[in-house]
Each structure stands twice: as structure tokens, then as C-alpha cells.
Amino acid sequence: MKNYLEFEKEIKSLETDLDSLRSPFGSEGISEVDTQKIRQTEEEINNKLKQTYANLNSWQKTLVARHEDRPKAKFYINKIFSSFTALSGDRLFSDDKSVIAGFGLIDNKSVLVIGQEKGDDLTSRIERNFGMMRPEGYRKCIRLMKLANRFKIPIVTFIDTPGAYPGLGAEQRGQASAIATSIECCMSLTVPNIAVIIGEGGSGGAIALASSNKVIMLENSIYSVISPEGCASILWRDPSKSLQAAEAMKLTAKDLLELGIIDEIIKEPLGGAHRDAETMAQDLKHSIIKNLRQFENYSRQEVYDDRKVKFLKIGREKGFEKSGNLADKGLGYKETLLNKLRKSSNKSKLFYLGIVALVIGLIAIATVVN
Description:
Layout (H helix, E strand, L loop, with lengths): L8 H14 L2 E2 L2 E2 L4 H19 L4 H8 L7 H8 L1 E5 L12 E8 L2 E8 L5 H6 L7 H16 L4 E7 L6 H5 L2 H14 L4 E10 H8 L3 E5 L3 E3 L3 H9 L5 H8 L3 H7 L4 E3 L10 H18 L5 H14 L6 E3 L8 E3 L3 H33 L1
Parallel strand pairs: 5-6, 6-7, 7-8, 7-9, 8-10
Antiparallel strand pairs: 1-2, 3-4, 4-5, 11-12
């Protein structure tokens, strides 16, 4: 049974009509199927989907990112990677079912695959804790990322979580420390790591695994420090202002690409990834292979520097980069030409203002003397 969102009421009605047209059993028994009417209805559905999904606001995209039928990490792992071997446990406390991690093959090359898994039905969602990881989940990922780094194996991560689990037990076992250590681990890797946001990318629960060389988002996914409802509750004490909060937060893929937070957007099939999961998986596979190939000729230091430059550039016009002087080590801040001209003009303004003030002063003195 398909699940429909609030803004898809007309689409639901049309698809119900289409199902009736396709059925040969009418009210009077078996009847002839009207193929022409079926084609017209299918075209009408496609046009309605195009019109609806071309004009989604930020809150509607949030609802699509949370859609019950949206493909989850487990689906993509099974479709994209071969010979996947799952590994469990953090070697300290227990295994966390909300994250799937293990080694697999893509393009005949070994990769470490990490996927935040929400679950497909109520039973699996409870078992997976709705994709909200606990400290042991992050520690499992840290353990495996260090293992992959030791053996020069790239890392691919699927992000889909409303946030890290905020329960008392998680806090007692060091949730904040686990997230911080996971971010540190991601940033210190000398192998390529690629993060794909396939649904929700919520709070520190997402960035703990998305501090990567490449951050890719599906067209209708979201990535933010807090949920729109949470933001509205804090700022306006009114969760009903979720639309206003979602627009202000710039949490959609398009907004984040413009801000330089992410590196690529993968277009979804008409009506969202859940309407054609197979095509979505193939497109995602091509993107992962393309991005992994980009780092094939990079040295380990170059991979590390690439990631560092990426994050240091966020919020700056150009950021930090390698100096052209071989004597210089590490990364240095490189000012843009525009900034240099602006500073130069500001200094020139002060100089000329000083001269004008001096001339005016001299004229005033001469006038008084005369």
C-alpha cells in the first residue's frame, strides 16, 4: 500500500482512478479495459507530479525526506555493493542496530560502507531506534574507520537520521564525546571518505559521519543542525511555524550547494526516490564510483588536505590552500583579489581624506593670518 503526503491528495485520487481503470472487474463483472483512458490518466499523473515536485517548499521537502516508503541505507547497500560483510560491536559496550557497517565491493574495489538505518516497518524501526545512533554506534564506526584507514580502503557513508539518540543511557555512556571523537576521526583520515545524505541529515548525529571529502545529497533530502519543528519551538515557542523555520534554516540540497556546504546533488526520479528506487540506486552508484575515481591518483596527504581545505572554505570566499612556495609547509589562508582591492581602497580612502583635511587646515590657517 502506497503512502501519500498531504500535498499529494490530487495524485492519490488520480492513481486510485488509474487502478480502477486497470482492473478488468467492474460493477457488472468482467469488462473491457479502456487503454486510451489509462494512457490519459497516466499522463495526467506525470504532469501533476512534475508540477507538484517542481514547486516544493523547504517544509514539503522535509516531509519527502522523511517519507515512509523512501529507500533506506540497507536497500542501497544491497543494490550498490557486492560481497558485503557486516561487522558488529564497539569492543566496549554492545552493538548498535541503528547503524550498518562492513566491507563490500564497488567497481571491483574494496570499500568500508557505513549506513544509518531507520527500518522499514514498526518492528524494525523500534529495533533500529528510528536511525538514532547511541555512543556504541559511533564507536563501532570509529573502530572500522581506523581499520579502513590502516589498510588504505575508501569509506562510503549513508546518512539518514533525525539526530543522535538523546536518551539518559546514551548521555551516561558519553554521547557527546562519541560524536566529537567520530568527527575528529573522519577529519583525520588519509583515505577518501564520501558521505551521501539519502533522507534526513539531522544535527550532530549526521555530521559525526558526514565530515567527508565529498558530501552528496539526494535532491529531496535535508541536512541541518536541528529539525524545523525543534527550531520553531526554540525561536517562536510554536512548532506550527515549521515552514517558516525550514525556509530560514536553508536545509535543502539546493540551498546547501549554493552555500558550499555540500558538493553535489543527485536528481531523484519523478515524484521522489520512493517512486523508482531501482533507478535511484543506479544513479547513486554511478555518482559514488565517479567521486571515488577522482581520488585514485591522490597521495594520502593530498586526500587529507583536500578535506581540510573543503571545510575551511565554508563561510569564506576562498579559504585555505596549499602555498605555491615549496619552502612553506601546511595550509595557509589565501586572500581573494577582491578582498585585497577592497582593503587597498580602504587604506587609500584614509590617505586621501588625511590630505584633504590637511589642505583644509592650511587654507583655514592662511585665511586667519590674512
